[in-house]
Amino acid sequence: MPEIGEFHTLSVTQITEDGFILDTEEPGGVLLPTKNAPENLQVGDSVEVFLYLDTDDKPVTTTEKPKACVGEFAYLKVAANTVVGAFLDWGLEKDVLVPFAEQHRPMQEGHSYLVYLYLDKIQGRITATSKIDKVLDDYKPHTFKAGQPVNLIIANSTDLGYKAIINHSHWGVLYKDEVFQKLSFGQSIKGYIKHARPDGKIDLTLQAGQETRDKNAELIKEFLNTHEGFAPFHDKSDPQLIVKVLGMSKGAFKKAIGNLYRQRIISIEDDGIRLLQETAPAPTKKEPVKEKATQQPEVNNSSGTDQRIVVLNQEPVELYKILKFEGLVGSGGEARKCIADGMVLLNGVVETQKRKKIVSGDLIEFGDEKLSIQLGSMEQQHDQ
Questions:
Q1: Contact in structure between 373 and 360 (CB atoms under 8 Å)
Q2: What is the dihedral of CA 26, 32, 37, 41, to 10 degrees?
């Protein structure tokens, strides 16, 4: 018999009045009730099901998905209190029991608790416990590595920050001075391994390396663009000010402005940071954008369309901004939609990332338009 409390892919061997008999490589198989089966299921078909015990403690399957499998944690609400314990709503018709002996503190109906699901050793029933510390061991061996993405469940708060359960198997810590969003008990969230310490304990972060650095740089550029190109803080400013205004740590801020400075996008001054140039070429009111770039016939162009040269005064520039500022669409929103719908080619391949970074040498195709990207000064652009 496949493991109770887990998902399995089983094939239909027989159809009865009660439902479908699924092959378990044991005599009799296991029932999938008609009400829990997909439409048009036939003998020989395979179906993914969850295996558990019904009210008579007989194995049965369902295509419904519980909020957790055996060996996992979940934040569940008490549906009823009885003489044997509390029953929790875990997404299936039959609730899961937390015996009194497995309650960290007495459970109240209507309240939610973080629990771990396991198989009762005597009767083999799926059971829950709220005594989390007896399940998790701070010193349990692991193979986590720095930068590895993991699934977290927020389980507790301490003076240092938040204790979180990593991949349903280990404890980790999120330090409060590195968390810039509201977290709640029982919340599931994506995180990353920051550091696996020699003592076996694990430090966590909600920020992901280069992805986060790029995001922070974009936030800073957006702030500058909406504040006349200047921000009255820099790498020596009060960390609390940076957190309040930008929602990032001072360390993350320093890394981001360092990258922007090296790209010559900003300057770092005594009283703040300043945007050196526009983040995308801006059109003038008097002259249509399309007329700013010289049209040039494309060599060996089988479609017969012209290739237009677009000169950037800095790179990279996000794809949707080029469509907007070159007048190919009416707005940034329209540009983003066209890209998401697969209507834009970048170097001959469909590109669906609206913020894809465009650099010199790239070729953008949109409808009958072909834009050849070149890097140069604004003076060069007007002289062409």
A1: yes
A2: 40
Contact 187, 157 (CB under 8 A): no
In this predicted structure, what is the pLDDT of residue 295? 33
pTM of the entire structure?
A: 0.58
Q: Would you state the structure tokens that stand for residue 339, as one six-digit string?
A: 């890209």
Indicate if the pLDDT at residue 341 is higher than 90.
Answer: no
Structure tokens at 72: 């996992």
Positive or negative CA dihedral for 134, 137, 140, 143?
positive
With vertex at residue 129, the alpha carbon angle to CA 125 and CA 131, rounded to the nearest 5 degrees, is 155
Q: Are 82 and 42 in contact (CB under 8 A)?
A: no
Query: What domains, with CATH codes, occur in the chain?
Result: 7-62 (2.40.50.140), 73-134 (2.40.50.140), 149-205 (2.40.50.140), 209-275 (1.10.10.10), 289-383 (3.10.290.10)
* Residues near 25 by beta carbon (within 8 Å), at least 6 away in sequence: none
What's the average model confidence in pLDDT over 174-192?
A: 87
- Here the tokens at position 173 are 């810590």
pLDDT at 331 over 80: no
